[in-house]
């Protein structure tokens, strides 16, 4: 349990920030609170009208500065990040990995210990899967950007891309 | 960032485990320590995979062996699952609707935690570990950006609209891990353990739980996803947990202390 003051507060109500999330769009903030009537049993949260004073979070969805993938993704995609190159960049090819959707091979450029560019040398995946790779490239760069080290999301599985990327990284 | 920065992705359990950090050791010993940590992951996969018919867990489900005949870790995981089931009031359950023991919800981060411990014991203490989207930060992590974790939007990372919902910064907090459960990447796969049959939990699109420990974050994320919005009150009342969730209708809710973790720049 929280510290005693916090426990006392949570017995009355706890403010929960709330806003509407729409895929790909910024939408206005609305504020809600979830009242937890008592702590004698497991409180079930119920949404109530917006409450002034409830903590309001203004998350600024972090947009990466690199080019965003679009729906019309060519088979070979190059994403240029805005990472300043302070040391000589080195480029290495990953291994060719056979996935269920075709062959995948990436080429990675690292500069000052960071991935600055990932290029698909082979992305003849079919079934609409090629669109997936552009985001994976973005992921690889994001995850190695100066902004954050890791991305937390529901378990991801994109083995072929990562195998090739891993093979490329192992060569640095 | 020092010159001994390492970055290793190990494919195991159908996902990627990424170790990133700085090592005070030479490259050779660092690599050996990483190999030993990865061996722990593969060993856990061999024992606990429900996809491999020869694994102990598959044999156990088929009634071909008993816990007593399995390696000791099977009993350990069994006990841990029971303990977590109690702590989450039954919302985390390692028993499938068919009443077979399926610890898949625990094994990934349980193994990752052991891998991280082995790395620290070997002298590699300054790192982050991303276990298929569940992130652990070591106490000694020195790079500012290692403390920052991007939280994915509730979309498959294969989606062209995928991106980050927010970035949190755990530096200076007691939190060391963030785990996300959701239906975006793998579809509906978390069932409601309190329903009569195999009924999937659908009230939330996604929930991220921040905790002191990777397993704690993972179990609570799974339990909260199964329970739905009502779980937020329980998480809010626990000083060792914070969470942010997205409801099926697109609304976002977070615990009181979560806002303080959002990276401001």
From TrEMBL, chain A:
Record GO terms (molecular function): FMN binding
Q: Which SMART domains does the entry link to?
A: FMN_bind
Residue ranges that the Swiss-Prot or TrEMBL entry lists as coiled coil? none
Per its UniProt record, what Pfam families does this chain match? FMN_bind
- Region annotation Disordered: where it falls in the sequence: 31-58
Please list the residue ranges that the record marks as compositionally biased, kind Polar residues. Answer: 31-52
Q: Where is the FMN-binding domain?
A: 100-172
Listed GO CC annotations:
membrane
Protein name (record)? Unannotated protein
TrEMBL record, chain B:
Q: Which organism is it from?
A: freshwater metagenome
Which named protein is this? FAD:protein FMN transferase
Q: Which cofactor does it need?
A: Mg(2+)
Which molecular function terms from Gene Ontology are attached? metal ion binding; transferase activity
In the UniProt record, does the keyword Transferase occur?
Answer: yes
Q: What's the catalysed reaction? A: L-threonyl-[protein] + FAD = FMN-L-threonyl-[protein] + AMP + H(+)
> Which Pfam family, any one, appears in the UniProt record?
ApbE
Q: Which UniProt keywords apply?
A: FAD, Flavoprotein, Magnesium, Metal-binding, Transferase
Where, by residue number, does the polypeptide cross the bilayer? none
SUPFAM superfamilies under this entry? ApbE-like (SSF143631)
What EC number(s) has UniProt assigned to this enzyme? 2.7.1.180
